[in-house]
Design a protein that fits this description.
single chain, alpha+beta, PH-domain like, five-stranded antiparallel sheet, three-stranded antiparallel sheet, 19% helix, globular
Length: 131
């Protein structure tokens, strides 16, 4: 399945160690016109699955989007403007959602994060110009 030039392919992610390791989320991160979309499923003890959930985080609710390289896994860090931004996403910290991605997907993840950061910057500039 191909994607238009302005749309980045979804990238797989996981959120391990939820509830002291009893749960783990895995899914896809993708961009939509207004922000970042997380489509994921939560597995309890690796057996019981929650069913697919979709959470859309608008650029208006984000302070920053960061990418950090790791030896085995990389991280995408979404920083929200309040604690409510990620209340539907499991395993988040105070206004921060950390998604782990596999090293083999690094190029795709970096492309998606670069696009998201560009859109976030454009959104913030538009908001400044409206004031």
């Amino acid at each position: 399945m191909g994607y238009p030039m302005n749309m980045k392919a979804p990238v797989p992610f996981e959120i391990p160690e939820i509830n002291h390791g009893l749960k783990e989320a895995s899914g896809l991160m993708k961009l939509w016109d207004g922000g970042v979309e997380l489509e994921f499923e939560v597995a309890t003890l690796g057996i019981f699955k929650s069913g697919v959930q979709i959470v859309r985080i608008s650029y208006a609710d984000l302070n920053a989007i960061k990418f950090k390289k790791g030896w085995i896994k990389d991280k995408v860090i979404l920083e929200g403007i309040s604690m409510r931004v990620f209340e539907e996403v499991p395993g988040t910290e105070i206004a921060t959602c950390t998604l782990k991605t596999k090293r083999k997907n690094r190029d795709e993840v970096q492309n998606l994060v670069s696009s998201a950061r560009l859109h976030l910057s454009e959104y913030k500039l538009e908001q400044m110009n409206e004031k």
